[in-house]
# Entry
Amino acid sequence: MSEFFAQFAVPHPSTLIYIAMASIVLGSIALVAIVTYFKLWGYLWREWITTVDHKKIGIMYLITALVMLFRGGVDAVMMRLQLAIPENGFLDAQHYNEVFTTHGVVMILFMAMPFITFFFNFLVPLQIGARDVAFPRLNNLAFWLFFMGMGLFNISFIVGGSPDSGWTSYFPLADNEFSTSVGTNYYMLALQIAGLGTLMTGINFITTIMKMRAPGMTLFKMPMFTWSALIANLIIVFAFPVLTVALAMGTMDRLWDTKFFAIGDGGMDMLWANLFWVWGHPEVYILILPAFGIFSEVISTFARRNLYGYTSMVWSMILISVFSFAVWTHHFFTMGQGAFTNSIFSITTMAIAIPTGVKIFNWLFTLYKGKIVVTTPMLYALHFIPLFTLGGVTGVMLAMSAADYQYHNTMFLVAHFHNVIIPGVVYAMLAGLTFYWPKMFGFMLNERLGKATVWVMSTGFVLSFIPMYITGLDGQARRMYTYSDAAGFSTLNMVSFIGAGIMSVSFLMLVWNIWYSFKNSPRDIGSDPWDARGLEWATHTPIPHYNFAITPDVTDATSEAFWDSKKNGVKLFKGEIKDIHMPNNSGQTFILSVFFFIGGFALVFSMFTLAIISLIGILACMGYRSLEDDHGYHIHKEEVELIEKKYEKEGGAK
# Structure
C-alpha cells in the first residue's frame, strides 16, 4: 500500500513546493466552505456549470484566463528572481526547469487560449445577430474539457511532479530515459484533453459564423473581430489535430515504449519537433489574429471613424493564416536541416511580415485625422503599436537563418517572443476586457486606475524585456538557471527582475480596479457607454438570455451596423416579437468531462483498470446523449414583451 501512495509524491520537493501545496489545500478548503456556507451549490450547478448560454460560458473562460495569468505570472517572477543575481540559490536546476516548462504551457495554452475563447463566446453571436452558437451543448462540453485538461496539468505541481522538459517537450529529453517522473505524462494527457475542447470550439464557431449571421450580413459586412475569429478557428481546425496526434504518439512512447520519437529503434526525435511546430507556429496566429480583431474594434471606436482599408485588413488576415503553415521550420534553423530548406523557410518567415505590416498601417491610417478619444482601451492600443512593431522587427532578424545561429538559443529569442505576445495578445485582451466590461457586468472600470495600469505595465514590460535583447546578443543562453559573475549579465538581469516586479504591480492594479469599480462605479450607464459601432452594442445591458428580441436585419447597413443605426437612421429591428426557441442546460457534458479527467489522471500513473472504467463512463455518456430526446424550450412572445418593457422602463435600451 505504501508503494501505491509513494508514486503520487513529488519527486523533487522543496520549501516553495510545500508552501504551494499548503496554499492550494487551504484555498480549496476555504472556497468549498464559502460556497457551502452561502448555499451556492445549487445556484452554481443551475446557472453556471450546466449552462449553455454563450455569454456565461465566455465569462467562465475569462475567470479561468485571469486565474492562469496569476499562476503563470508567479512562475515568471520566480524565474526573473532566480536570474537577478549570479549563482543564485533561490531555485535549483530541477525546480527551475519545472518552472519555465509550466510557465510556457500555462501562459500559451491555459491563459491566452481561454482569453481569446472568452471573446469568441461572448462577442461573436452578438456581432452577427445570433441567439447563441450553432451547437450550445458542445460549447459547454468544450469548456469543461478545456477546464479538466487545465486542472490535470496544474495538479502535477503537487501530485507526482511537474513536467520539466520545456514547454515544447522535445524528445529525447521528454522520453522516459531523461524525464523519469510522471510530469511529462501530465503534459501529454492534459494537453490532449484541453485540445479536444479547443477543437470543438473551432468547429462550433466556424459553423456559427457561416450559418447563423443576421439577414443581410454578407461575409464582407462582418465586423473585423468576427472575421478574425473565423480565420483563427479555421487555423484551429487544421492545426490542433496535428498536436493531438503528436501528443498521442508521445503518450504511447512514454506508457508503452513504442519508440515513435526515440533516437534509436527506428524512431525520429525530429519528427516530434516537426509535428509540434506544424501546430506551434499557427498557434501564435490563433492567438494574435483575434487580438488584431479586438484592436480593430477599439481603434475604430475611439478614433471616431470607420476602420481604414476594411477589405485589405480581411485579405491580410487570410494571407497570414496561409503563411502561418509555411514557416514552422524556422524554429529549428540550427538543427541541421540544410541551407536550401533554411533558405525557403527564411523567405516565407520574412514574407509573413508583409500582411502584418499592412494591418499596422491600416490602424495608423484609421488614427490619422481621427477624433481620438484616449480611453483605457485606446491607451492599450496606442502602446501596442510601437511595442509590437519592435517585436516584429526582431522577428525579421530571427528569420535570417544564418544570423539565427547567433540568436536562437539566447535570451534575444525570449525577448522577441514576449515582445510579440505581451503587447500583441495580453494588451489586446486587457483592452477588450475593459472595453466590453460594461456590456458584461453593467458598470465601467475606473478610467484613472485603468490608464495608470497601462503605463505601469508598459514601464515594467520595457524594463523587463529590452535588457534581454542585450544579454542575448552578449551570449546569455536561455533555459540556464544560473550564471557566473564574470559573465557580466548581472546588472541587466537585475533590471529585468525589477521590470517583472513592476508588471506584477500592474496586475494587482487591475485586480484592485475591478474591486474598486464593483463597489463604487455607477450602474446607470445605459447600453452604449463608449458610443460604439458594432451590433453587439445594440443589445440591452445586462444582455437578455435571448440576446435580441427581434433578429436584426443589416441589409441596409455596413460592417458597423449599430453606428449606421445611430448616425444614419438605418433600421435594424424590423418585424415583430415572436416566440423564441432556446436550448436546455445540460449536466451530462460536465459529467462526461469528469470521466475524461479521471481517465487522464489514471493514465498518468499507468492505472489502466481505472482508465478503462473511465472509458466506459465516457462511452455511456455519449450513448445517453445519442438517445436523449431534448428539443429545448420556448420563451413565449408575451414573456419577451414583458422583459423588453422592463428594459425600456429602466433605460437599458438604446
User: Anything to note?
Assistant: Residues 114 and 412 are 28 Å apart (CA to CA). Residues 93-127 form the longest helix (35 residues). The two ends are 66 Å apart (CA to CA). The mean pLDDT is 94.
